[in-house]
Amino acid sequence: MKAVGIVVEYNPFHNGHAYHLQQAKAVAQADIVIAVMSGTFLQRGEPAMVDKWTRTKMALAGGVDIVIELPYVYSTAAATDFAKGAIFLLSAINCHAFAFGSENGAIAPFLNTFQLIDTHRSDYNMLIKESLQTGASYPKSLHYAYTQLSQKFPADYIDLSQPNNILGFHYIEAAAHLKSAIQPLTIPRIAAGYHEPVQQGATIASATGIRKALATTNELQHIQNVLPHTSFDYLMDWSTQHGHFASWEQFWPLLQFTLLRHTSHELTRYMEVTEGIEHALIKAAKTSNSFNDFMEKVKSKRYTWTRIQRMLTHIYTGYTKEQAHHLDKPSYIRLLGMSAVGQAYLGQYKKQIELPLISRVAAIKNDMLAVDIHAAEIYNISVEQQVKHNRLPKDYQTPPIRM
């Protein structure tokens, strides 16, 4: 059996995701699809709208055969480390290929782009440093360096201002640095751009557009056309039980308390809190009535919205620089769910999978896994603040979902 890997958040699983995994399976000529999925907190530094077990059910109902968890250490990291963790796990579970969605839609320009940057790495880093010294943000400095190089050595390259192209580049970079034999493939995104709102009558929308629509109306019927019916049903169940979807706006009182209970010096212990921003975080927390109000006060030319959200995630979950220093590559694969075909694959290739496959974690002692379980507990407490009678499943007690 051949497996193709995909890197997902499924926040939530929508029709575009269904198309992507069908195309990935076809293009890779694979028998099964394995998804490495972020847990309760995501790469843009925000809580997932529903927990990972609900999103695992959506994935399995949508056609994924095996869902494994991307540890918190990677799922909340910048693109380079996010990609490194994901590709490491997909390689370890014996995927022969991985497929990612992109605005470009062709693999050759990605390979050309990686070759350009890898060959001229020292010049690239010098150009980044040069741009940062002007006060530009890190993403803008990356784009400046890339533009300078691509103009000097013209060829067919990707547009690295597009979010999915950026991630795709880092997946290929990660596979090369890991010396993995896993084959990169890309599927063109269709119909909806990354940040586009949900269009009336559309059947494809981005996850960002779906979340914005729900934040505006809180009416699931407005997004029903862009979701598989199973995803819609799972979201309806969540909404009925919990009354709201998880977001920083919902978590704001707890986040505000977390910020204000620290001194500015104490905040510097946490990942990504650097360069004196701790003072601005506390100052804004004292005078903000909402998360959006807080963010508008803190974001700047140097600190992007996403970068600030990631540092807030680490403060909220208590993930420190000292912890990060001691956590290297994953030493396990955590199984979240599988179909019957996925179970057959694991049975057939168990001896060829490079890492221990963990299904029950209660008795496992592992520092990286402990960070995941702690983050899930923080998430659950935050969701349950106003809905005490509907308890979310304890992460360390929950077995993989079989579907």
UniProtKB/TrEMBL annotation:
Its main location: cytoplasm. SUPFAM superfamilies: Nucleotidylyl transferase (SSF52374). Keywords: ATP-binding, Cytoplasm, Ligase, Nucleotide-binding, RNA-binding, tRNA processing, tRNA-binding. It catalyses: cytidine(34) in elongator tRNA(Met) + acetate + ATP = N(4)-acetylcytidine(34) in elongator tRNA(Met) + AMP + diphosphate. The keyword Kinase does not apply. Coiled coil: none annotated. It is an enzyme of class 6 (ligase). ATP binds at residues 7-20, 101, 164, 189-190. The keyword Nucleotide-binding applies. Its EC number is 6.3.4.-. It comes from the Bacteria. It is found in: Cytoplasm. Catalyzes the formation of N(4)-acetylcytidine (ac(4)C) at the wobble position of elongator tRNA(Met), using acetate and ATP as substrates. First activates an acetate ion to form acetyladenylate (Ac-AMP) and then transfers the acetyl group to tRNA to form ac(4)C34. NCBIfam families: PRK13670.1. Belongs to the TmcAL family. This is tRNA(Met) cytidine acetate ligase.
